[in-house]
Each structure stands twice: as C-alpha cells, then as structure tokens.
Specification:
Arc Repressor Mutant, subunit A; binds calcium ion; alpha/beta; Rossmann fold; 2 domains; four-stranded antiparallel sheet
C-alpha cells in the first residue's frame, strides 16, 4: 500500500511518515502543492493525505485538478480548526474525507483504512492463499499452522503479492508499492527479496506446493494453478 503525504510542515509530515511506515505503508512526502500534484498525477498511489494550506498550489486546487484529470485516488484532507468553509469546499472539490488538526495517529489510521476499504482495496486483516495465512494487524504469517518469521520488508512484499494473488506482478509494480519513491531500488533488489521470501514460505516446506512462481520475462505470481 503506497501513500503520498502532501504537507509543508516538515515536522508533521515526518511524524506521519514514521507512523505509517511502522504500519507497513510505503510513504512519499511532497512539501509543496506543485510537487504533490506532480507526484499524484504521475505515480501510482493508493491514497493521498493532503494538507489544505500549501505553498504554490493549495489542497483544494490539487483536488480539483486531479479529479478533472480523472485521477480518482482517495484523498484525505487535513484542515485546521478555523477552516470550516474550506472543509466543505474541499469535499465538494473531490476530497473523500477530512481530518481536523490536531488529530491522533490512531484516528488518522482508522480514516485511512476506511477510505481504502471504500475504494475496494484489499485491507482485510486476514489474507490467505492455499495454506498460507497472513494476519496483517498482528503481523503474523503461517503456513499450514507453522509460524513464519518475516522482516518488515518481506512482510510488505508478501502483503502486496497476496493482494494481487493469481495475477502477474512486475518488478516495477513491486518497487512502486513496497518501497518509497526516493528509495534507490533496482530490479535486482526485488529479486533478492523474492528469494528471501521464497526461502521462508516455499523452500522451508519442500513437500508443499510452490506458492511464488517466476513468470519469466514478466515478473512473479503468487498462487494459482500450475
Ligand atoms: Ca500547511
């Protein structure tokens, strides 16, 4: 799951990024409206957290422009208490929800999950394929009842593959959804992580079906028939 934060207050942006990364989202930050608009219109995000007052281009203009250009990524608008009129204007211009500053991180997370659910993005807490199960909220993965210990990155990678199970995903898609925009990730790095994950969920279970398949020339596929 990949989120863009557009917020000119560095302190807020960084604390949100830190919290969301702990929840295993990939997070990019834009500090100006223009940069936020450019990223939102060219990169593939699952959600945008958008501050209302921004240098260059304000949150409402960004909402309007994105919607005008048929970009329908869910937008959560951040507003200050005094900006009641702007809230309404924001919702009218295409934002999906708003949160008034100051807010608790838990509230933000609940709103994000609700918006992602509304959009139909997979945010189930339990996802499974064959006899592999993932409990996202507890950070647990099991295969046939045996616990598998994954690092945070391996977990995000598996979560992404599970959300796209039975579909072929390319290395580029994996990089976009599992790593941040400014992370210098090469396709080789994806191969390394796929290998680590495969060792843990497939090679440790030699008598079971291989779940991660390499689709030569395209990418990878989790689950599905042989
Ligand atoms: Ca601001």
């Amino acid at each position: 799951m990949r989120i863009l934060i557009v917020e000119d207050e560095h302190r807020i942006a960084h604390s949100l990024q830190k919290g969301l990364e702990q929840e295993r989202f990939a997070v990019d930050i834009a500090y100006t409206g223009r940069e936020g608009y450019d990223l939102a219109s060219t990169e593939d995000y699952d959600l945008i957290i958008l501050d209302l007052m921004l240098p260059g281009m304000d949150g409402i203009s960004i909402c309007k422009e994105l919607r005008k250009n048929k970009i329908h990524i869910p937008i959560l608008l951040l507003t200050a208490k005094s900006q009641t009129n702007e809230k309404v204007e924001g919702l009218n211009s295409g934002a999906d929800d708003y949160l008034t500053k100051p807010f608790s991180f838990d509230e933000l997370l609940a709103r994000i999950r609700a918006l992602l659910r509304r959009k139909g993005t997979v945010v189930q807490t339990n996802i499974s394929v064959d006899d592999l199960t993932m409990d996202v909220s507890r950070f647990e993965v099991k295969r046939g009842g045996s616990s598998i210990s994954l690092t945070s990155k391996e977990f995000s990678l598996l979560e992404f593959l599970l959300s796209k199970q039975n579909q072929i995903v390319t290395k580029d898609q994996i990089i976009q959804h599992v790593w941040n925009f400014d992370a210098d990730i090469l396709p080789n790095t994806v191969e390394v992580y796929i290998k680590k994950l495969r060792d843990k969920i497939d090679n440790c279970f030699p008598n079971k079906k291989q779940l991660i398949k390499t689709v030569r020339g395209f990418g990878y596929k989790l689950g599905g028939d042989e």
